[in-house]
Amino acid sequence: MKRMMIAAAAFSLLATPVFASGTGEHKHVGMPGKANDATRDVTIEMMEMSDGSMMFEPASLDVKAGETVRLKLKNDGEIDHEFVIDTDEGIQEHKAMMAKMPDMQHDEPNAMRLKPGASGEIIWTFTTPGSFEFACLIPGHYENGMKGAITVSN
Ligand SMILES: [Cu+2]
User: Is residue 15's pLDDT more than 50?
Assistant: First the structure.
């Protein structure tokens, strides 16, 4: 009986569009932007440190509501990393999903996974004032420091 309940729970997770959290009933972190609207480039590097920790550099981002930013992502590490931008709740949901399915590939507009040495960009329009988050949700990375704070001001 217990096993059946676990199976049912796993199925409902799969059937639920968890990754739509950025545009679901949560507070919106924003939406994909148009390249022509980008008024600023921000380079964010991903890396591992010699002490075993992992990080984004910089680990914080301050923007204004309505601003469109070109996020230039670069994996300077020796292992895969990802960049996910979302509400705190959305990050935690995505993190729980990644813990169950660590090899899951996703191509949501608010997320990008990069191989060592690879780079990419996300153009994002921040719509709502508040505090948001960016993170790498490959299992263990968030706990080792791969998170950053986004402050969207009026
Ligand atoms: Cu990572």
Answer: no
